[in-house]
């Protein structure tokens, strides 16, 4: 990841004090710092990779039997357990609720386990179902799949719950959508993409975008994660 690369280069700079090419480590470390903390570059590259926003008017003109919501939006390890702790991906759930309330989807299908070897009660889809119950959401029209540990397993297990001839609306983060949509299409689903959680912005270029920013590091981190994930899935034949 970007922060790791910067740290390793500077660590090497301080360790190899007598290396004749040591000065190039300093140049490389400084260059990586400038690149990976530049919000203009990070914003531009992430925008180019992530899926663009769906046309909401076009989405509303159709009707979907299932809205498939991929998990990855809560901290299931946080105590106490009498509430749900959401992270920045909560937009996935908020958009799903909006789509359901507007009658665009019939059934909300939540896919994602995430349980650990020591805690079998941490399936995130079950946690989200409990949250929906707490806000009086009509959970009779919610189905959960709580065994998958990653995106490709979510796509495979969906075949046990969802008729592939039914129209499907896939809901996940914009940066995750290329990999997720590829996995579901590989399983034979005919789907429409509904990206959420945009870390990028569409503002005009401003001087602040060229100042060192931890937001830029986060965007690069997200992009590196998805680049590596997409490449690994492609090599494994999951896409």
UniProtKB/TrEMBL annotation:
GO terms for cellular component: plasma membrane. Pfam families: DUF218 (PF02698). The chain crosses the membrane at residues 24-46. The keyword Protease does not apply. Keywords: Membrane, Transmembrane, Transmembrane helix. One of its GO terms (biological process) is peptidoglycan metabolic process. It comes from the Bacteria. Residues 87-229 form the DUF218 domain. PANTHER family: ENVELOPE BIOGENESIS FACTOR ELYC (PTHR30336:SF4), INNER MEMBRANE PROTEIN, PROBABLE PERMEASE (PTHR30336). This is YdcF family protein. It comes from Marivirga arenosa.
